[in-house]
Design brief:
about 325 residues; 11 helices; single chain; Arc Repressor Mutant, subunit A; about 20% strand; Rossmann fold; two-stranded antiparallel sheet; nine-stranded mixed beta sheet; alpha/beta
Length: about 325
């Protein structure tokens, strides 16, 4: 019987490397699987298509978030007609300054794709193998199966197949999914319809919400800082309709593009006294694990020291 694969711990890529590897900075990490969620009519599909245009063209998503890896995008729009998809892509290209005719976005035209059927899963894998996209977008999840979304044992095999595609073809997978109606009182990830498997599955998740006339975007990452309530609006310029970041959210957008090491270092410089992990986490708006990983790297670099009082910048760095 062959042994399980194993690796020396020191040979495993560092967490800091993983933290800084983005497909679209601040929005989607490289080769991540995850959910773009929200209630109906929250412009989820517009955001998915904006990501598609950005990755395919190399231009900033929402005219704000830098693309780190440009490449082909494969899209399956299960609800919108092909004519509507084309019109929306053309509008986003016009807003972004991208050439639509040469845009490497491939659209699956099969009317039905069911990930709970072996034949359809195999055909999707064959298509990904043929196209070799950097990003695969499936919109929406409800049209991709006939299983009980509330039953983890039924939904897990579908998510496992998409994870297998990600690992086999080094492709990021974005799954558009609905949130429960009237779920504004819940945390975004907990508001998703169906099993909690969906929330836990994502490496990067995006959540759209509408409060009155205001759209907001919340980001969530397994190994990077998250951002809450980035205000967006749907704008139309010369018949080109696209999402844009509301102007007064510049600070949020800039923060989303600041690396975790810089954010932790900035927080320590602001405190100018030894601080606990929890204190630093609150100032940075980062997850505890991300703060700990950043602190460990800063200690290794000689920028930060730790004693019984907490973490602090070394004198040469605090000046």
């Amino acid at each position: 019987m062959s042994p399980l694969p194993f690796q020396r711990a020191s040979a495993i890529p560092s967490a800091e490397t993983a933290l800084t590897r983005w497909l679209v900075e601040g929005l989607w990490s490289e080769q991540a699987v995850g959910i773009l969620g929200g209630e109906p009519k929250c412009c989820k599909s517009f955001l998915a298509l904006d990501l598609a245009v950005s990755v395919a063209s190399g231009l900033a998503c929402l005219r704000r978030y830098r693309v780190h890896q440009r490449g082909r995008v494969l899209l399956f729009p299960a609800e919108d007609s092909l004519a509507v998809v084309r019109r929306r892509l053309e509008g986003i290209c016009a807003a972004a300054g991208a050439g639509f005719e040469s845009l490497p976005v491939d659209v699956i035209t099969e009317p039905v794709l069911r990930l709970d059927r072996d034949q359809d899963r195999n055909r999707l894998a064959a298509t990904v193998a043929a196209v070799r996209p950097v990003l695969l977008i499936l919109d929406p999840m409800i049209r991709l199966h006939r299983v009980d979304e509330n039953d983890a044992s039924q939904i897990a095999p579908l998510l496992s197949h998409l994870r297998e595609l990600q690992r086999r073809f080094q492709v990021a997978v974005l799954l558009v999914h609905h949130a429960r109606k009237d779920s504004n009182g819940s945390r975004p990830g907990q508001a998703l319809r169906g099993s909690s498997e969906l929330h836990g599955w994502g490496d990067s998740n995006l959540y759209m919400r509408r409060r009155g006339s205001q759209l907001t975007l919340t980001t969530e990452h397994r190994a990077a800082p998250s951002q809450d309530d980035i205000p967006l609006q749907l704008t139309e310029v010369a018949s080109a309709v696209s999402l844009t970041v509301v102007a007064d959210s510049h600070a949020d957008a800039a923060s989303a593009q600041t690396g975790p090491l810089a954010r932790v270092r900035q927080a320590l410089h602001q405190i100018r006294a030894p601080a606990s992990v929890n204190c630093i986490r609150k100032l940075c708006g980062m997850r505890t694990a991300s703060v700990c990983e950043a602190l460990a790297e800063l200690v290794r670099q000689g920028v930060v020291s730790q004693d019984i009082r907490g973490y602090h910048l070394n004198p040469a760095q605090a000046a």
